[in-house]
Amino acid sequence: MKFFKSEKKVPPLQHDTSIPYAEVPAKDFEELFKKFKASADFLSFQYPSEAAFTVSYFKSIVGPDQVHQEILPVLTQQHPSTLEEVKNGIPVENIIISNDLKVIQDAVMTGSVIIQINPDNSHCLLVPCASSEKRQISIPETEFSVVGPKEAFVESIETNINLIRKRLPVPELQMKEIKVGRISQTRIAVLYIDGIVDQENVQTVIQRISDIDYDAIVDISFIAQMIADNQNSVFPQFIDTERPDRAASGLSEGKVVIIVDGSPQILTGPTTITNFFTAFDDYFVTWHIASVFRLIRVFAVLFSIMSTAIYVAVTTYHYQSIPADLLPTLIASRGAVPFPPILEALVLEGTIELLREAGARLPTKVGQTIGIVGGIVIGTAAVQAGFVSNVLLMLTALAALASFTTPIYQISNTIRIIRFPFLLSAQLYGLLGVAICAAFFVCHLLKLTSLGRPYLEPIFPLRVKDLKDSFIRLPFSSQTQRPEILRTEYSSRMQPKPKEDSRDIDE
């Protein structure tokens, strides 16, 4: 595989790994171990030999098998007299000897075993023995596809990187690791393919993550909000995915991937609004079918946002524009409803949101039952009681169903929220209010960026080449270049073959 190598290199973000041997005050060292021993899961015991060794560790984060198989036999059988002899006898990588309190604390809290010659000696041998308890790889839940791979990311950062490297086995796939969180010290990995990615994107991501000053980072969503270009926007500015194949595809395009230890999702960026209408299984079917599916999603989103707002505007201000054949149906539907259309719409929209939240917070089987039975019972009772009209009930149900067609969960939440400003605008100014609200969101999207890249690309600025894989998907033979928005160092994805005249089988 040939890449054009970049002359710009990202400096590695690593902590100082030198071993300071300056004397540490005994008082400070004792205070640190008092904090350790105050916890019930901290073990400390001595092994008598030529030198009295003290072994200490947190049993909740250290693997006991490795302690009993690799460490204790060295102390009991080889009879070492110094920490250097113990280090040379233990077949474990990344063992260090240090008296730096910060190094000792970080190592112990991440699963290292402390070995001392005697309790008064401040120099410690730190042996990494972290427990490898983790969830097994399962199928994707929020991005499930009928065809294609059935693997999803898990909470282990090593496993997630393995799932990506398995799909991109090239040395150009580089990783930079950063620790963020004053309390959590969460490991964050930034992945990119050197020679393809724009190094400016890499530097921007690393700089923004390094500047985060927060006490605990427990999920990737924290990072997505903190490094976004516009933190006040309701539109997501990174793709949040649980599919390794989608992450690998983004890396091959020239995007940057962010992985947080403890989170089963990863972030890819920069991104555009068209990416949120793209399901990865669109690439597993022919381009004709994939293009139709994408257009259906775009139409469904527009319908979900506009349908109830247009209903309120028409029935409130523009009833003269209702076709004569439809007018008797609307009159019969709203004849028994004592509320204005806006209140009727807000009641239905609020009911839909209540059912969604109840279904999401309850156990899976109970939640499905609440969503189906609750929707049918409440909807039927509301129409019979005269609180809402059956026409608006049908529109609201279709709008709620249409909002679920987006393959990325974050954009569906955005669609749920922005429907309410359109409703209020329709009540105030009718169709003019709907147009004003739409213009406001369009202006917001025109100014919005993702890692400094325009959010509405390839619509604005217009880039015809990138339209090949946006709202429609052309054949792979037409997608010979990587997206221009990514400004990749090596833009070619494949060499187009010259067209040859085909002959019939009987010629």
Automatic annotation (TrEMBL):
Its main location: membrane. Residues 497-507 have a biased composition (Basic and acidic residues). The chain crosses the membrane at residues 295-314, 369-402, 422-446. GO terms for biological process: spore germination. It is a multi-pass membrane protein. It is found in: Cell membrane; Membrane. Residues 487-507 are annotated as: Disordered. It comes from the Bacteria. InterPro entries: Spore_Ger, UPF0353/GerABKA_families. Keywords: Membrane, Transmembrane, Transmembrane helix. GO terms for cellular component: plasma membrane. Belongs to the GerABKA family. PANTHER family: LEUCINE ZIPPER PROTEIN 4, SPORE GERMINATION PROTEIN. This is Spore germination protein. It comes from Peribacillus cavernae.
